[in-house]
Amino acid sequence: MTTASDTPLPRIAFLGTGIMGLPMARRLGEAGYAPQVWNRTPAKAGPLAALGAVVHARAEAAVAGADIVISMLESGPVVEAVLFTQGVAAAMKPGALFLDMASIQPREARDHAARLGALGISHLDAPVSGGPGGAESGTLAIMAGGKAEDFAKALPVLKHFGHATHVGPHGSGQLTKLANQMIVGITIGAVAEALLFTSRGGADMAKVREAITGGFADSRVLQLHGQRMLERDFAPRARMDIQLKDMRNALATAQEIGFEAPITALFERLYAEGVENGLTDLDQSALFVELASRNGMS
């Protein structure tokens, strides 16, 4: 497959076709890349075959000969296992680029970059924000850490997923994703507490949300998560336990770099108590339920 200018498209392998990876790989297929795909459960990657993707039973087979390998796996330890235990790093050709779009800890990203670099393989950590909807529509916010020249190489591919920004050296993409999750998690708590506060005082929560929309307190969290709180719609998009994991990763990184994060620490405890109280599999906006319970509000 070639572009309009007859420049061959890079050969791409895509590892991990879960709730985020599947629509992202689909967008590559629709753009004509015919990605080589692997997923731990092969059936989940099956729908991509209709778009020209080749589904492999082994990750090492998927990455053989690839110019760019994209990872959308579950966690840092899973990425490490796939790369260095399962044999993906050894199967990649020198000069290839490993584009890790999973959300892992910055120190893990730096370690992976160093170990891949010793094999002659480039690395970018490029986690995303925007959820499954952003993955479907190609409107993800992408935060990339690594060398500028590797970011430039990846940019024509990243544009199919959303808007990408190079934020610094290896690990910086993951650091930025943690900052994103800190802001999201803390703001969810602020919105929940404020709405419950007004309700306890006798105001109509829906009208309160309407009144402050457009002012300095407005945000995507107020608009989207605030509406979920009003509707008591806590079907999981990003789960409570995932938000808790993000807060804990942020605190671990803060300790590593000698930074005090008291606000994040407070909200880590709140999310932890919500999880302990049975809210694990609900949407992160279910922190509203935990705060309501503390105040004897249904």
Task: Describe the structure in brief.
Helices cover 51% and strands 13% of the residues. It has helices at residues 21-30, 59-63, 76-85, 88-91, 106-117, 131-137, 148-158, 172-200, 205-212, 220-231, 240-257, 262-279, 287-294; strands at residues 12-15, 36-38, 54-56, 68-71, 97-100, 122-125, 128-129, 140-146, 162-168.
Describe this structure in words.
- The chain contains 13 helices and 9 strands.
- The chain has about 300 residues and is of the alpha/beta class.
- Strands 1, 2, 3, 4, 5, 6, 7, 8 and 9 form a 9-stranded mixed sheet that branches.
- Strand 1, helix 1 and strand 2 form a beta-alpha-beta unit.
- Helix 8 crosses helix 10, helix 8 packs across helix 11 and helix 12 crosses helix 13.
- The radius of gyration is 21 Å and the shape is elongated.
- The termini are far apart.
- The model has no long low-confidence stretch (mean pLDDT about 95).
Report the order of strands and helices.
Answer: EHEEHEHHEHEEHEHEHHHHHH
What would you call the shape? Answer: elongated
Amino-to-carboxy terminus distance = 57 Å
Please give the share of residues in helix: 40-55%
Unreliable residue stretches: none
